[in-house]
Amino acid sequence: MLLLLLLLAFDASLSRAALYKDTSQPIHARVQDLLSRMTLEEKIGQMTQIERENATGSVITKYFIGSVLSGGGSVPAPRASAATWAAFVDGLQDGALATRLGIPIIYGIDAVHGHNNVYGATIFPHNVGLGSAGDPDLVKRIGAATALEVRATGIQYTFAPCVAVCRDPRWGRCFESYSEHPELVKAMTTIISGLQGETPAKGVPYVGGSSKVAACSKHYVGDGGTRSGINENNTVGSYKRLVGTHMLPYFDAIDKGVSTVMISYSSWNGIKMHKNRHLITDILKKRLRFKGFVISDWQGIDRITNPAGANYTYSVLVSVTAGIDMIMVPYEYTKFIDTLTSLVKQGFISLDRIDDAVRRILFVKFTAGLFEHPKSDSSYRSQIGAHRDLAREAVRKTLVLLKNGKNAKYPLLPLSKTASKILVAGSHANNLGNQCGGWTITWQGASGNTTLGTTILQGISNTVSKNTQVVYEESPSSSSVKGGGYDFAIVVVGEPPYAETQGDNLNLTIPQDGANTIESVCSSVKCLVILISGRPLVVAPHLSSMDALVAAWLPGSEGQGIADVIFGDYDFQGKSSRTWFKSVEQLPMNYGDVEYDPLFPFGYGLKMGKK
Ligand SMILES: *[C@@H]1O[C@H](CO)[C@@H](O)[C@H](O)[C@H]1NC(C)=O
Ligand SMILES: *[C@@H]1O[C@H](CO)[C@@H](O)[C@H](O)[C@H]1NC(C)=O
Ligand SMILES: *[C@@H]1O[C@H](CO)[C@@H](O)[C@H](O)[C@H]1NC(C)=O
Ligand SMILES: *[C@@H]1O[C@H](CO)[C@@H](O)[C@H](O)[C@H]1NC(C)=O
Ligand SMILES: *[C@@H]1O[C@H](CO)[C@@H](O)[C@H](O)[C@H]1NC(C)=O
User: Fold this and answer.
1) Which residue numbers delimit the Glycoside hydrolase family 3 C-terminal domain (predicted)?
2) pTM of the prediction?
């Protein structure tokens, strides 16, 4: 009998009883064990990330899919609740757990200023504003809050932070960049410790439990350096300059244990980053010792060729060979799987390369605790929208005071809470969608009541005395302003929401309706102008007519934070994360340039002091 038991135990060890499931084993041993059990089909499945639209439990089971994403605005149902989201993600996870080896999926989403695809989530200021706040602890707390809201929906992975160093504000993604200054961007990588938790071992990918999410530093590398700020274009310069300007934040991100790195659509010296083996494998993986996985951007491998997808075999061959581990396909996944399978079977891509990719993906999944806790935790459901006070604090800190009084002896700010009648005007004064910008509910964002929050007008109304009459008119005529008997006016104008290429802009003027409102109001009454924009705009022609000017960037859902400051409950502390140029002809012009003649320099920001 004893012998029989011994034999059975021996037999179990021969079939290598699921060492990868044994939590007492070190992660590298679990990864190695699991990898050794996997077929090529299972490995290639792990490397495949598909869009939510294509994802069902049975698709995941059938193709051994390793990851699913929501693209911008891709939601299981309009205004889906946290419970609906979590049920959806858990349903996909069931498909993954039903496979032979039961390897969980990791679900990724662009939670880039809060969990911004989700209706009712807290929307934090976009990165350009957070760079102006310049507070590493603040962004860390925002990271932790965002992780909780993401976990509320059952999701375990965010494609954030963007650590682009935007060197030309004509770029449509400039608001996703903390600053033009690499050191300031680097200082903001504390958000990674907020999202993932503090890694106990420097440089080792880490996700600290079910209240944290895997992060992604993007877009490696040089995304913010393209010519004239053209999205996805070419960044030209020496290796030394690439390292000193655009690669710098990655050093810190890797130290902080960032789990993944996303590759940039852009090229460096004419070579698409998605095929740059030297920068991905030799530099990122070997020299910088990045141990997490490298992910492509959305159809990023397709865009290696011009036109996109012209030779998909080539795209798969050169991107995987370059060192990309997971491909954000995201739609034509059977084509991707078939192409990669045939390239491996024909010997064009080595099994070693596939194993490196899968090892990295599994490593992240193990560290994220997905094997032990593959499903959502319902105790986080109430986290959606639960961080509005933090967002309001962030708004206060992001505001940059650029001008206060036509004559510095007579400042306009802080504004009086007890004025008898004030005017609030402009396209962005009472418009939640406009103050949130792109990447809010939908990819491009949209004007209007797209989600929950407090508009700037509502914040003003909440703050002034009961006896103050607040009149709101979006675009008043100058005669109505003159005859209105106002003590002062607050004009809130700026850019419409946009994202990526749609935001590329060569003139950077204040849109005409906003410029008109500034002129008609400010010529008639004392005025504060609040600019809502993802970057500095050309303000020089309007500056003399304004009594005061505040750059509020893209503040997000908590407009109250603006009233908190302009009425003097808090002082300004923002320092511009970007150079304010006089005219677009000066661009690109950044802090440290030999020819530097700004309207307001990098780091500029006034205080009000006490009234
Ligand atoms: C950069 O933009 C120009 C103009 O749109 C285009 O012709 C060129 O192909 C782009 N270069 C890259 C590397 O994308
Ligand atoms: C597509 O790329 C593959 C791999 O580089 C190459 O062998 C093939 O000739 C290309 N096809 C065409 C039509 O150019
Ligand atoms: C994925 O979904 C897209 C959009 O609905 C569809 O066009 C595509 O055919 C789907 N892919 C597959 C492999 O079914
Ligand atoms: C949004 O809703 C508020 C409150 O119902 C309303 O006053 C406002 O006009 C709406 N804004 C837009 C842009 O539709
Ligand atoms: C500035 O560029 C934007 C984006 O291309 C365009 O929509 C707008 O009309 C331009 N404005 C002017 C004044 O040319």
Assistant:
1) 399-607
2) 0.97
